[in-house]
Amino acid sequence: MEIDNNTSYMIGLFQTDGSLSKSSRNRGKFQLELSIKDEDILYKLKGIIPYNSTISKRRRKSSINGYNYNNEFSNLRICDLNFRNFLVKYGIPYGKKSKIIKPPLHLENLSIKDYVRGLYDGDGSLGLTKNNLPFISFTTDSNDIAFFLTEYISKITGKPLKDTKRNKRDNIYNICIDKEDSIKLCNEIYYHGCLS
Fold first, then answer.
1. Rounded Cα distance, 34 and 21, in Å
2. What is the rounded (10 degree) CA torsion for 104, 166, 117, 37?
């Protein structure tokens, strides 16, 4: 696979929401599980990735504050060793990765804005505050991703962000911008016709 806009997006999405595992004799798999409402992206990815893949669905029951929920998920699975080697080479490690992922800035043709959009589609959120103001936020446990994203946002908005620090509640970074700055960032990374 070559590094282009779509693979740059995939790297960001897979670093945040994907999971890569291996076992003996070069066996292993890559999985990306999303809510059923977002399964269209899995079919788009399946059409781009030139390796055998499967998409399956599953239900998971959960209970929150006495309320029972049935959540449906779609799961993209790829077992091909060549694809797994591609992922490792381009910044998606095996096993737990939340603290150790880094932006793959060494990749010659990496599209930064597509990569950032992948990060946001994985661990970000965007919407309106209770006062009807637009916002975009991102959570990460990785120092490297937090500092990279802070610099990227400052470059797009033309404004320095406050010092990037871990929050006290759960010791992760929560990078949030609002109003005009959030619109600028969204317009940069969510352009017409992009994979998202």
1. 18
2. 130
Q: What angle is formed at CA 38 by the lines to CA 48 and CA 69, rounded to 5 degrees?
A: 145
Q: How many CA atoms lie within 13 A of 62 on its CB side?
A: 7
DSSP string for residues in 125-156: EEEE-TTS-EEEEEEES-HHHHHHHHHHHHHH
Alpha-carbon Rg for the chain, nearest whole angstrom, is 17
pLDDT tens for 89-125 read 998 999 999 999 999 999 889 999 999 999 999 999 9
The owner of tokens 């946002």 is: 153
Helices vs strands, H then E, count in the chain: 6, 7
> Which residue from 139, 143, 144, 141 is spatially nearest to 103, judged by alpha carbons?
144
The pair phi, psi for residue 57, each rounded to 5°, is -120, 150
Strands 67-78 and 28-35: antiparallel
36: DSSP letter: G
pTM comes to 0.91
Distance, CA of 179 to chain centre? 23
Output the six-digit token pair for 116.
């950032």
CB 58 within 8 A of CB 45: no
Token pair, residue 159, equals 């404004």
